[in-house]
Amino acid sequence: MAELETREQALAYLAQMSPTETFQVHPVSKGWVATKVLSPEQMATGQSVGLARLVIDSETGIIYQYPSWSETMVAEAYTTFKETGFNRGGTQIYPYQSRITIQRVREDAQTIVYQMTVESLTNPPEPTQQSQLTIEKATFAHEPRGWLASVATSHAEWLSRQNRGVWPEVATTEV
User: Fold this and answer.
1) Measured CA distances, 65 to 72, 78, 101, 107, 147 (Å)
2) In this predicted model, what pLDDT tens digit does every residue of 112-164 receive, in sequence order?
3) Position 141 in a domain
4) First and final CA of the chain: distance in angstroms?
5) Of 12, 58, 85, 137, which sits most exposed with the smallest number of CB within 10 A?
6) Neighbour count for residue 5 (Cβ, 10 Å)
7) In this structure, are 81 and 134 located in the same domain?
8) Whole-prediction pTM
9) Is position 2 within any domain?
10) What CA–CA distance (Å, rounded) separates 10 from 93?
11) Please, which domain of life does this record's source organism belong to (predicted)?
């Protein structure tokens, strides 16, 4: 586990998770509240509205994402979580807990079908899950429903936009 006692250590740890983003961090009891630093262009286009806050647990290295609450409200929710075990609003986002891999099975003009494999990155690991993922290209509607299928769909759609409409044959992402 990384040492997270100083501002510099907290910022370096965030850079491991998200190397292209810059954060401001402020100490709280047993952690750090982090807020993404936006460019003037991002501010001008309203990207600060709904901006989530992160909390780094300095004891475990787990990073939690909280809603766009005030820094004080996030710190209070996190402190309550550390004292009581009741986590109001925070979701673990790092270290990643799952690796999602999709491999194209078939494709036509309207849909693309992938074999989706979800591998646990936790210790001890959860069983590996496999299912077929069908995506409607025009609407991005997908079956099965669920959070991991939504992540896989979003990642595949993003890659298709990067490749001028060509959907990936194989892709992997971690959440």
Assistant:
1) 15, 10, 23, 35, 16
2) 999 999 999 988 999 999 999 999 999 999 999 999 999 999 999 999 999 99
3) yes
4) 19
5) 85
6) 11
7) no
8) 0.77
9) no
10) 15
11) Bacteria
